[in-house]
TrEMBL record:
Keyword check for tRNA-binding: no
PANTHER family: CEROID-LIPOFUSCINOSIS NEURONAL PROTEIN 5, CEROID-LIPOFUSCINOSIS, NEURONAL 5
Keyword Zinc carried by entry: no
Coiled coil: none
Keyword set, alphabetical order: Glycoprotein
Protein name (record): Bis(monoacylglycero)phosphate synthase CLN5
Entry GO terms, CC: lysosomal membrane
GO biological process: one example: aerobic respiration
Single Gene Ontology MF annotation: palmitoyl-(protein) hydrolase activity
InterPro entries in alphabetical order: CLN5
Catalytic activity: 2 1-tetradecanoyl-sn-glycero-3-phospho-(1'-sn-glycerol) = 1-tetradecanoyl-sn-glycero-3-phospho-(3'-tetradecanoyl-1'-sn-glycerol) + sn-glycero-3-phospho-(1'-sn-glycerol); 2 1-octadecanoyl-sn-glycero-3-phospho-(1'-sn-glycerol) = 1-octadecanoyl-sn-glycero-3-phospho-(3'-octadecanoyl-1'-sn-glycerol) + sn-glycero-3-phospho-(1'-sn-glycerol); 2 1-acyl-sn-glycero-3-phospho-(1'-sn-glycerol) = 1-acyl-sn-glycero-3-phospho-(3'-acyl-sn-1'-glycerol) + sn-glycero-3-phospho-(1'-sn-glycerol); S-hexadecanoyl-L-cysteinyl-[protein] + H2O = L-cysteinyl-[protein] + hexadecanoate + H(+)
Length: 323
C-alpha cells in the first residue's frame, strides 16, 4: 500500500487510504565505504580507543547484557553545557556484560566534525564544492559514567541475550559499511504533525533509533522511565527541485550560472572564518535563506534546491518513543 511517485515521493496509504506523501528521498545505501580523502583532516581522531578494524567482541548466549540510553550535550568540552541548554545533544548506546563485568559504548558520529558534514570546502583548484562528510559507527570498551550522567542521561532501558547482542553486532558492521555520509538537516514541508518529510537526517540519533528498532526486531524489550527526546535540526521548504550531481552541475558550461550560485551559497558558510567575516556571513545567510527563500541541499551526493518557507530553520528537542 505504498508507491514511489515520479518526483521521488514515497506515498503511503494512511487513514481511509487517502494517499499521502510521507517521505521524499531516503538516505542512499552504498556497496562499501570508500577511504576518506586525504584533504579531510580530523581535528580530533575518530574513535581513538575503538578496535582498528571495528571488531565487536563476541558474547556467550548465556550472558545477560544490559542496554543503556546515553545522551550528553554536544561539544561540551568547548562550550560547557551551553549547547545542552539549547538541547543540542549527542546520543549513544551503552552495553554491559553480567558475565565479564566489561562495559561498552557504541555511537555514530562525524569523521571530520559537524561543520564539515554540514558545509563543504571551496577549494581554489576545484570547481565543485568539496565535502568531508563521512560519518561512522564507533564501538569501544568502557562507559564514562560521569560524562553521560552529569549533564545528560545514563539510563538502563533493557536487557538482551548474548545471541541478540551478536546479531546486533553483525547488523552494525553492515550498517556501517553501507550508510556512509552524515546528514545534519531534516527537511519538512511545515512544523505541523502531518508535514511531509522531504529529506530525513542521517546522524547519531538516527543510528540510535535504527539500533533500537533492530534490537526490538531481535526480540528485545526496551523501556524508559522518562521521555526519550532527541535533537532535530529542521529546514522548512516547499517541494524540492532536483538539480543533479557534481559532474552534471559543475562539469557542464550550460549550467554555469547554477554552479556559480551554489558556490556563492556555500561561500557564506565556509569554515574557519574570522569574527568579522562570520558576522557578514550571518547577514548573507539570512538574506539567502529568509529573504531569497533559497537553500541548496547536498543529499546522497546530489544537489537539490529548496524553496524555503517560514519558520525556515528550527532546532527542536522532541520525543521519539522507544520501539
Ligand atoms: C574540517 O576539515 C578541514 C579540512 O580538512 C580540517 O582542517 C578541519 O580540522 C576539519 N574540522 C573542522 C572543525 O573544521
Ligand atoms: C565503521 O567504519 C569506520 C570507518 O571505516 C571504522 O573506523 C569503524 O571501526 C567502523 N565501526 C564498526 C563498529 O565497524
Ligand atoms: C562501566 O565500567 C566502569 C569500570 O568498571 C564502571 O566504573 C562504570 O560504572 C560502568 N558503567 C556502567 C553503566 O555499567
Ligand atoms: C556539566 O556542566 C558543568 C557546567 O554547567 C561543567 O562544569 C561540568 O564539567 C559538566 N560535566 C561534565 C561531566 O561534562
Ligand atoms: C492530520 O491527519 C489526520 C489523519 O488524516 C487528521 O485527522 C488530522 O486532523 C490532521 N491534523 C492536522 C493538524 O492537519
Ligand atoms: C551523475 O549524473 C549523471 C546523470 O545526470 C550520471 O550519468 C552519472 O553517472 C552521475 N555521476 C556519478 C558520479 O554518480
Ligand atoms: C520532549 O518532547 C516532548 C514532545 O515532543 C515535549 O513536549 C517536551 O517538552 C520535550 N522535553 C524537553 C525537556 O524538551
Amino acid at each position: 500500500s505504498s508507491f514511489l511517485s515520479p518526483s521521488g515521493c514515497l506515498y503511503q496509504c494512511t487513514f481511509y487510504c487517502s494517499f499521502r506523501c510521507i517521505s521524499y528521498v531516503t538516505p542512499r545505501r552504498f556497496d562499501h565505504r570508500p577511504a576518506a580523502d586525504s584533504y579531510c583532516e580530523a581535528l580530533y581522531p575518530f574513535c581513538p580507543t575503538g578496535d582498528q578494524d571495528g571488531r565487536i567482541p563476541y558474547m556467550r548466549d548465556s550472558d545477560v547484557i544490559s542496554v543503556y540510553r546515553l545522551q550528553t550535550p554536544v561539544w561540551e568540552f568547548k562550550y560547557g553545557d551551553l549547547l545542552g541548554k539549547f538541547h543540542i545533544m549527542h546520543d549513544a548506546i551503552g552495553f554491559s556484560s553480567s558475565e565479564t563485568g566489561a562495559n561498552y559504548t557504541m555511537e555514530w558520529y562525524e569523521l571530520f566534525q559537524l561543520g564539515n558534514c554540514t558545509f563543504p570546502h571551496l577549494r581554489p583548484e576545484m570547481y565543485a564544492p568539496f565535502w568531508c562528510n563521512q560519518g561512522a559507527a564507533c564501538f569501544f570498551e568502557g562507559i564514562d559514567d560521569l560524562h553521560w550522567s552529569q549533564n545528560g542521561t545514563l539510563e538502563k532501558i533493557g536487557e538482551i541475550t548474548g545471541n541478540q547482542f551478536n546479531d546486533m553486532a553483525q547488523w552494525v558492521q553492515d550498517d556501517n559499511e553501507t550508510g556512509i555520509y552524515y546528514e545534519t538537516w531534516t527537511v519538512r514541508s511545515d512544523p505541523g504533525p502531518n508535514a511531509t518529510v522531504w529529506f530525513e537526517s542521517y546522524d547519531c540519533s538516527q543510528f540510535v533509533h535504527r539500533t533500537y528498532r533492530k534490537l526490538a526486531e531481535l526480540g528485545a524489550k526496551l523501556s524508559s522511565r522518562t521521555q526519550t527526546n532527541y535533537t532535530k535540526i529542521y529546514l522548512y521548504s516547499g517541494e524540492p527541485t532536483y538539480l543533479g550531481n557534481d559532474s552534471a552541475i559543475f562539469g557542464q558550461p550550460a549550467l554555469k550560472n547554477l554552479a556559480v550560485d551554489i558556490r556563492n551559497f556555500y561561500h557564506t558558510f565556509r569554515p574557519h572564518q574570522s569574527f568579522t567575516d562570520f558576522a557578514i556571513s550571518l547577514l548573507e545567510a539570512y538574506k539567502k535563506v529568509v529573504l531569497d527563500k533559497s537553500f541548496y541541499l547536498y543529499y546522497n551526493f546530489e544537489y537539490w534546491h529548496l524553496p524555503m518557507k517560514p519558520p525556515y530553520v528550527q532546532i527542536t528537542y522532541e520525543e521519539v518513543p522507544l520501539p
